[in-house]
Amino acid sequence: MSKQINVALIGNPNTGKTSVFNALTGLNQKVGNYPGITVEKKEGVCKLPRGVKAHIIDLPGTYSLNASSLDENVVIELLLNKTDKDFPDIAVVVSDVENLKRNLLLFTQIKDLEIPTLLVINMADRMHYKGISLDIDYLEKHLKTKIALISTRKKLGIEDLKNLISHYKDLPVTPCLHASEIDKAYFDSLRKAFPNQLLYKLWLVITQDVNFGKTDRNEIEAVANFKTKSKTDLKRLQQKETIKRYQFINNVLKQGQTIDASQAKDLRTKLDRVLTHKVWGYLIFFVILLTIFQAIYDWSSVPMDFIDTAFASLSEWAKSQLPNGAFTNLLAEGIIPGLGGIVIFIPQIAFLFLFISVLEESGYMSRVVFLMDRVMRRFGLSGKSVVPLISGTACAIPAIMATRNIESWKERLITILVTPFTTCSARLPVYLIIISLVIPDGRFFGLGYQALTLMLLYLIGFGAAVFSAYLLNKILKIKSRTFFVVEMPNYKLPLLKNVALTVVEKTKSFVYGAGKIILAISIILWFLASYGPGDNFNNAENIIKTEYASQNITDDELQQKIASHKLEHSFIGLTGRSIEPAIRPLGYDWKIGIAIVSSFAAREVFVGTLATIYSVGSDDEATIKNRMAAEVNPILGGPLFTFASGISLLLFYAFAMQCMSTLAIVKRETNSWKWPLLQLGIMSSFAYIIALIAFQILK
Amino acid sequence: MQYTLAHLKRGEQAIITDVSSNHIPLKLLEMGCLPGNVVELVQLAPFQDPMYLNINGSHLAIRKETAIHILIEKVVHE
Questions:
Q1: For residues A359 and A383, is the Cβ–Cβ distance under 8 A?
Q2: Per-residue confidence (pLDDT) for residue A263, from 0 to 100
Q3: Same domain, A287 and A247
Q4: Is A538 exposed, middle or buried (0-12, 13-18, 19+ CB in 10 A)?
Q5: Do residues A121 and A100 make contact, with C-beta atoms less than 8 angstroms apart?
Q6: SS3 of A127, please?
Q7: What is the dihedral of CA A574, A577, A582, A586, to 10 degrees?
Q8: Residue B53 structural domain
């Protein structure tokens, strides 16, 4: 068997580290989580020359080994745990040619850990735009490493990089500067106390919280307690260390790098002048948002109609081709419509992720952070809250994880608490189907009414988030220091490969994650809807036949009556009836009630549930939408989904906390049940009240 | 008069002379905000806050409340 080596990709954010990872692994990658925490773990496999296989880990981006977030902690924990199964045989530090100075800080720190380290200088194709030239030999000599000059955009140097990785054993493992000179006496005493440990490792353990694997925990714990210096002194030392490292880097680059500023063509300045402008900046941001929502609507309507019809005919086909029986019914009435209810939203979710990833990749998102910080601060949020709030339109779970780079705990907590108000993609299924039922077609200044309604719902979501943030900011008494530092990366044309991989990966995990829940719930629902207790259910046929014996009705109508009588007296019907009094004032019948209850786990289950309930016992080939349109209000007569009940439902879903996964993630990120339970209680009761008011006014 | 980063106007350059270490996060130093480095104010958001800076080739944005703890010496262009 060929040997497999562990390769860790490390680098500052915005250096194109993920592009390098994609270039090396292509489609041979998977995304998971680090055990016990919610930090994303990306790993992949790459074939190197001479039959060597490399297991590559793309570590979270970090500016240094002084971790200030959970994500950054992952990096030092891996580099310090020699016994970890992923401990790297080689560390590949990815840097960006335009920010070499800053990128080298992290590089010199990793060199101090005496791991074979390779320096990748990415975006080499931009060197001549910026008038940069490098003396690679000089740099290799003084940085004590090998350098791979590559461009992931132009696909240059990737083979060289693979070759260098395969020769990892030839890389020097000596540090490139003596950081311990910042306080000789202190580091000498440290060395004496723990002679078997690497000095820099000791230093990192003392200055921050590192979790260790079982094997080296005992010894290390003693180190962490080696406190001969106060916190302020340690911080001062860290600053001295940083200054010392920069001195070294400046000296090396003075010789190894020349920048001819007159050669530099600055696209950044021109774009920034417009995109961060006091007026144009905001206007452009608004237009971009508007375009995104219109596009999501327009582009996905064709594939969605196609999927809807396809599932309806698949269900019909299963019924006609498979032998009659409980299993066929379960398949045709439970599983297929349930799955159809989720597959149909793939186009929209994919487009949403596409736009978000383009905004992030291009560097535009940081400009939005810059523009919005002042406005957001008025509501107790940070400019960085904009990223969670925007990516919350895809899903609240990654959005809540994206709050980790917000420096102030109060701003971060408020962001976590209000993010679930933003319209996540799981709300889309509910919104879209109801909008198509109750909002008329037609255009207003070229924008469809339906698209405008959707846009309005997004705005309501943001509004609710911002308004509740304002209240929380007034109520919560948390003192925390606020720091705000955000990098403004260079503008880049997004790489197609990166965007495509993100879209595929995120859509896949959304569909699988939601798909599992929906599949399970639709099977349970089908059982509950197909069986019932007592005479009323089991003798439905006779009861209806007797009731209508004297009347002249067609066979079809009779079958319909029997089916709905059965459904009403099935387990699910009985449950629905019992909760009906609570939801009738909102304009819903018991079937919607069931859908609301079952979608407590996840909002998108709503449509799947209605699809399952409505298809039980019905024979005709119909799409979910047509079935919903045909529903009759049991009391008032007329269609069940009217403007009033539709709006009431839309508002209910806009505000209600119908997502167990979000509650779980909030619990994990805030480390307490207090906040998720508070969220659940407040959001749900607020949703109920607003929906009630809306229906009572509009009906 | 002792100038801080908050006094800088758009397009102006200065040299950082001192950073008040208790008020400045380590992360900012790591991004190049160190004494001796050149800083340029690239852009201001409305209400002069936050500030978009080019420090030593690193582009970043910080709030005014942080900027007042970074002392500078203005570079005068003749």
A1: no
A2: 66
A3: no
A4: middle
A5: yes
A6: helix
A7: 130
A8: 3-74
Which residues of chain A are modeled with pLDDT < 50?
A: 1
Domain shared by A461 and A533, yes or no: no
Strands A117-122 and A29-33: unpaired
Among all chains, which residue has been given the structure tokens 């009985």? A574
| Tokens of residue A215, six digits | 């094997």
Q: Cis (ω within 30 of 0) for the bond into A35? A: no
User: What is the pLDDT at residue A283?
Assistant: 95
Q: What residues of A are in contact with residue B30 (Cβ under 8 Å)?
A: 63-64, 66, 102, 105, 242
A426, A357: one domain: yes
Beta bridge partners of A156: A151
The boundaries of the domain holding residue A657 are: 515-698
Measure A313 CA to nearest chain B CA, in Å: 55
- Residues A575 and A445 placed together within one structural domain of the fold: no
Considering only CA atoms, which of A409, A342, A401 is closest in space to residue A664? A401
The enclosing domain of B52 has a CATH number of: 2.30.30.90
Q: Tell me whether residue A583 is in a domain.
A: yes
Q: What distance separates the 2 farthest-apart alpha carbons in chain A?
A: 105
Residue A431 contacts residue A457 (beta carbons within 8 Å)? yes
Whichever domain contains A30, its CATH number is: 3.40.50.300
For residue B37, give Cα distances in angstroms to A84, A277, B56: 40, 27, 6
Chain A partners within 8 Å of B27 (Cβ): 63-64, 66, 68, 483, 485
* Residues facing residue A132 across a β-bridge: A259
A238: chain B residues, CB-CB within 8 Å: 26
Counting every residue, how long is chain B? 78
Examine the domain organization and report whether A378 and A462 are in the same domain.
Answer: yes
ipTM of this complex:
0.93
Same domain for A228 and A355, yes or no, is: no
Residue A12 inside a domain? The answer is yes
Angstrom distances, CA of residue A196 to CA of A199, A220, A395, A454, A570:
9, 11, 47, 63, 71
pLDDT the model gives residue A1: 44
* Chain A CA closest to residue B25: A483
Looking at residue B40, its pLDDT comes to 92
Query: Do B32 and A489 lie within an 8 Å CB cutoff?
Result: no
- Chain B residues touching A235 at Cβ < 8 A: 21, 26
Q: Tokens standing for A561?
A: 């009556």
Tell me which DSSP letter residue A48 carries: P
Pairing relationship of beta strands A90-96 and B51-55 according to DSSP bridges: unpaired
> Could you tell me which residues of chain A have a Cβ less than 8 Å from any Cβ in chain B?
63-64, 66, 68, 98-99, 101-102, 105, 232, 235-236, 238-239, 242-243, 246, 268-269, 272-273, 276, 278, 366, 369-371, 373-374, 383, 407, 482-490
Number of domains chain B contains: 1
Residues A334 and A360 grouped into a single domain:
yes
CA distance A219 to A80: 13
Binding-site annotation, residues of A: 11-18, 22-23, 25-26, 36-40, 58-61, 122-125
Chain B, window 1-20: residues with a beta carbon less than 8 angstroms from a chain A beta carbon? none
pTM for this structure? Answer: 0.80
Q: Nearest CB to B21: which of A105, A236, A370?
A: A236
Q: Which residue of A has its CA nearest to B48?
A: A374
Q: A255 is written with which tokens? A: 């010789």
Residues of A in contact with B26 (CB under 8 A): 64, 66, 68, 235, 238-239, 242
- In degrees, rounded to 5, the angle at the alpha carbon of residue A679 between the alpha carbons of residues A675 and A683 is 170
Domain count, chain A: 3
Q: What is the CA radius of gyration of chain A?
A: 30
Going by C-beta distance under 8 Å and a sequence separation of 6 or more, which residues neighbour residue A249?
A101, A104, A105, A108
**Residue with more model confidence, A616 or B75:** B75
φ/ψ of A648, rounded to 5, equals -60, -40
